[in-house]
Give the backbone structure.
Amino acid sequence: MPEAPLPGWRQAEAEAEPALPTASPWRTPLLLLGLVALLALLGPLIAPQDPLWQDLAARNLPPQPGASLGTDNLGRDVLSRLLAGARITVLVAVGATALALAAGAGLGLAALASGALPAALVFGLIDMIRALPSVLLGLALMVALGTGVGPVTIAIGLSFAPTFAVVARQAWLREREAAYVEAAVASGTHPAVILRRHIAPNVAGALITQAAIILPRAVTTESVLSFLGLGVSPETPTWGRMIAAGLPFVERAPHGVLAPVLALSLLTLVLALAGDRIRAAADPLRAGTR
């Protein structure tokens, strides 16, 4: 038996009733990302112990009161070193991604605006560099630059810069066919002006999308370099060095390896989730399919 229709005033009231707000898809990844940034900023300040303090009588202790994540092979507090290493990992990853974006996109767009010959030379070199894995290129640059936060940031940034240059070229080729760019060229506008006024603002979305992809890769690259002993200085606590130092004792003290591995996995996952939301916001067509 069909339901009787609502009276006119009730139907109007039901239609006018606002829908309950739904949770923003940004909330969870951004909250986690903010928590990671907060821990990276305040990590050394809230660490329960000095991350460099050694107590050889308390080596490889399991988690217990006073050492909630246990100690490593030199009696150092794992939690304190984990919090101190978060700052290095996040600082290097963000700095390397920013450097890669500025160097790669800047060089690529400048070469494209300078003419066919400079663009062919620059992108020929970039294609040769892209044939090398980013970790291998980072290793070669670290050998040339040395150890430290600055050198490892530069090495990782330059290893990912060609990717941004290629993204900038694809966006340039797409925007160059737009009617407003053709009109600016026909009116005799200088290529540098066209680049600044018309091309650059419209390729920003593609570059931001690529930055969201590169950031978690920069995190893992920094950890790989640290694991191989080519990251920051040896006395600086990093997650990669913690994994390398704990591997010989993994059977006696698995917490020394599990803690940095889980932290690295969680950070990469959080950055990937946040990056997915950023890509969805920067690409309306992709956002409409979610």
